[in-house]
């Protein structure tokens, strides 16, 4: 198994996912696609920053570390050709664990937000959460309880669903890298990076 190459693939996949998550979280601050009048008009879960921090910024570090693994100098440590590489794989486990926690956090926040539904303006002008326990998911007639902003339920559902999926994929990828990193740390990277010397 070529654990360094595998990690590089993970790194390349994680970057676009992190960017999608950051964009989704930013869009959630514009309910229905328009700037909110007051910050209290915005669904609370947007401020938990699951997409911006958990699946976004926290994921950039592991992604960069994974990307760099392939190029780590493996010939300089304790006279052991593979020990530098092994150390790199070992540190990648820690970063993968950070990514796992961040993505898991975003996943949980998104699940809670989907279950709770969006904050919106009712016909009486109050801003509140009209739904509970995901009841609106199976009954589209209820969506009209949200009078403003236009299309807020679709907006909320689309963006948090994307964050849910991104978080799940990131959790799986980082879990893979924890296992891959363990293999790499124990067995060394079997790509033979020093073979040419
Ligand atoms: C859907 O919601 C509407 C409005 O709350 C309600 O009148 C209707 O009975 C619900 N339909 C179902 C199938 O639960």
Explain what you see:
This protein has one domain (3-187). The protein contains 4 helices and 2 strands; from the N terminus they run αααββα. With 197 residues, it is mainly α. Helix content is 59%, strand content 2%. The two termini are 21 Å apart. The structure holds 2-acetamido-2-deoxy-beta-D-glucopyranose (NAG). 2-acetamido-2-deoxy-beta-D-glucopyranose is lined by residues 139, 141-142.
Keywords:
single chain; mainly alpha; two-stranded antiparallel ribbon; disordered C terminus
With strands numbered from the N-terminus, the spatial order across the biggest sheet is 1-2
The gross shape turns out to be elongated
Number of strands: 2
Helices and strands, in order, run as HHHEEH
Task: Give the strand content.
Answer: under 5%
End-to-end separation in angstroms reads 21 Å
Largest sheet: 2 strands, antiparallel
* Integer tally of domains: 1
Mean pLDDT, all residues: 85
List low-pLDDT spans.
73-78, 191-197
Percent of residues in helical segments?
A: 55-70%
Structural class label: mainly alpha
**Rg, Cα atoms, Å:** 21 Å
Number of contiguous helices: 4
**Ligand kinds:** 2-acetamido-2-deoxy-beta-D-glucopyranose
Oligomeric assembly: single chain
SSE layout and pairings?
Layout (H helix, E strand, L loop, with lengths): L2 H26 L21 H20 L13 H34 L3 E2 L5 E2 L23 H36 L10
Antiparallel strand pairs: 1-2
Helix pairs in contact: 1-2, 1-4, 2-3, 2-4, 3-4
